[in-house]
């Protein structure tokens, strides 16, 4: 029964990716052949994958969705390529991160371009659908339990964070410390000139310290005694996993693409030395969040009713 449900879900996701590829890929094709709209703020709606590269990315995602659906056995290379294309789609829409922060702070500004924003949302939608299809393929083909397909041995469920996860959390905090130290070295005046920047920095200060530490400490699973009304109650998993994975992916994509642009010699008001330090520090923050969130997910997920893993 579980296998049948997984197969039906996999078929639906395949059709969803194909539908997205036709719709969004058709828009990319029309823009490539007929000319892109004018994007004033960044010069393009996507980063790195523009023109025919964006069309090829959509076609590749569609082909991978079909391959994932039809492959009956576990093929790590296929899964790896699918995750790589998912990452490329997220990276192409990396500008979405500061735009979403602007929405949260109600400071979108006069330079907001609805067409570019919609295009980035469309790109991320394809990434999400392909990620779900890849995860479904892994769940369907890995392991020996038809209900969960988990690979750990029965009775080896972890209840404490792995050592590498603790290090990842501390690296994330260290990355944030280095980022603000670099800002202090060049002056803090630029941080107080824009409300969106202030909100982003404050949010990162909280997310870069409290969030990674909560992912690897007991107070990330049970509310500590100093929290009114909630003390002693379990912390909802999604309360940490959604921002942990979401911010981790967004930060790595945004600042990873920033480092790639820096390698290509892009011009900025800041010095190259400052940008290298700041973007590398942010990237460490994002990678640390992803690693700590992965460990938190693995050790706090519900045990399989069939095999106990």
Describe the model:
With 309 residues, this protein is mainly alpha-helical. It has 2 domains: 2-141, no CATH class; 163-300, no CATH class. It is 66% helix and 0% strand. The chain has helices spanning 2-34, 52-70, 76-92, 96-104, 114-141, 163-186, 195-207, 210-215, 237-263, 272-300. α1 (2-34) runs antiparallel to α5, α2 (52-70) packs parallel to α5 and α3 crosses α9 (237-263). It is globular. The two termini are 19 Å apart. The mean pLDDT is 83.
Structural topology:
Layout (H helix, E strand, L loop, with lengths): L1 H33 L17 H19 L5 H17 L3 H9 L9 H28 L21 H24 L8 H13 L2 H6 L21 H27 L8 H29 L9
Helix pairs in contact: 1-2, 1-5, 2-3, 2-5, 3-5, 3-9, 6-10, 9-10
Would you kindly provide a brief summary of this structure?
By secondary structure, the protein is mainly alpha-helical. 66% of the residues lie in helices and 0% in strands.
């Amino acid at each position: 029964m579980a296998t049948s449900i997984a197969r039906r879900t996999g078929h639906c996701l395949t059709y969803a990716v194909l539908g997205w590829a036709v719709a969004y890929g058709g828009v990319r094709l029309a823009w490539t052949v007929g000319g892109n709209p004018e994007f004033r703020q960044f010069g393009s709606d996507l980063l790195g994958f523009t023109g025919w590269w964006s069309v090829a990315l959509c076609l590749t995602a569609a082909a991978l969705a079909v391959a994932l659906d039809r492959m009956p056995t576990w093929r790590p290379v296929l899964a790896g390529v699918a995750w790589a294309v998912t990452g490329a789609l997220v990276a192409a829409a990396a500008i979405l991160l500061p735009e979403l922060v602007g929405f949260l702070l109600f400071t979108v500004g006069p330079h907001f371009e609805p067409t570019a924003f919609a295009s980035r949302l469309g790109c991320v939608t394809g990434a999400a659908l392909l990620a779900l299809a890849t995860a479904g393929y892994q769940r369907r083909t890995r392991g020996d339990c038809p209900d969960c397909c988990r690979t750990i041995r029965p009775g080896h469920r972890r209840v404490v964070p792995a050592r590498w996860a603790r290090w990842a959390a501390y690296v994330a905090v260290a990355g944030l410390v280095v980022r603000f130290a670099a800002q202090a070295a060049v002056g803090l005046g630029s941080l107080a000139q824009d409300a969106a920047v202030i909100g982003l920095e404050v949010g990162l200060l909280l997310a870069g310290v409290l969030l990674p530490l909560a992912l690897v400490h007991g107070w990330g699973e049970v509310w500590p005694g100093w929290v009114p009304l909630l003390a002693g109650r379990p912390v909802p998993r999604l309360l940490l996993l959604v921002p942990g994975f979401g911010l981790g992916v967004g930060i790595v994509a945004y600042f990873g693409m920033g480092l790639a642009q820096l390698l290509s010699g892009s011009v900025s008001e800041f010095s190259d030395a400052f940008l290298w330090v700041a973007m590398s520090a942010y990237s460490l923050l994002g990678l640390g969040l992803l690693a700590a969130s992965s460990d938190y997910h693995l050790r706090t997920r519900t045990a399989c009713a069939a095999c106990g893993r």
